[in-house]
Amino acid sequence: MPDLNHLLHRQQQELLFAQAASSTEARLAHQALARAYGRKIADHRREMGVASL
């Protein structure tokens, strides 16, 4: 599994990319990627026994 910091960084990048997107399609794609990273972060935290924040 990727490092938690890597996942958090990528999620933040995708959120920034979504905010700066020049089209609806790009914004939606970046938002979907950010959500996917969010799920991976939650899975990682569960595996490590860390409660959700």
Describe this structure in words.
This protein has 53 residues and is an all-alpha fold. It has one domain. The protein has helices at residues 4-20, 24-48. α1 packs antiparallel against α2. The chain is elongated.
Brief description of this entry?
Helices cover 79% and strands 0% of the residues.
How many discrete structural domains?
1
How many angstroms separate the termini?
20 Å
Largest sheet entry: none
Discrete helix count: 2
- Anisotropy-based shape: elongated
Q: What fraction, in percent, of the residue positions are helical?
A: over 70%
H/E element order: HH
Indicate the radius of gyration in whole angstroms: 12 Å
What integer is the average pLDDT? 93
Compute the number of strand runs: 0
Q: What share of the residues does DSSP label as strand, in percent?
A: under 5%
Regions with pLDDT < 50 over 5+ consecutive residues?
Answer: none
Structural class based on helices, strands and sheet pairing? mainly alpha
For this entry, give a set of tags:
single chain; 53 residues; mainly alpha; 0% strand
Compile the SSE list and pairings:
Blueprint: H1 4-20, H2 24-48
